[in-house]
Input
Amino acid sequence: MTTERMLRTHPHATTADVVALARAVDATLACAAACTTCADACLEEDSVEQLRTCIRTDLDCADVCTATARVLARGVVAPSRAVLALLAACVEACRVCAVECEHHAAHHEHCRVCAEACRECADACEELLTVLGGAQP
Output
């Protein structure tokens, strides 16, 4: 609710659906936190060698989500090709990370939770892409 309220206060309020935009901002921030936490938790596991790809994927996804959140939080007055490309990249990074974390979810609860956050983020960003009329940048 805070993100949506904040976006509505912008003097050049977005032409996009503010609810979808706020949902995407919140989802990208939550996903970045989940991925960062998952990577750190993976580093503490006894099987860290088998989690190398998961750790890198988590960190990549966290960085993409953070960048996406920062750009989206500025409000999208008119969706540029760069914004659409960033949203598409975020969807892809989240889908890849979710699949990787699901490989380890049976043994590591943090991977299960991370995969869930990634899927929610991908869905929110995909919804915003649709709202902005840019399924493909």
User: Anything to note?
Assistant: The chain has one domain: 2-131. The two ends are 28 Å apart (CA to CA). Residues 105 and 112 are 4 Å apart (CA to CA).
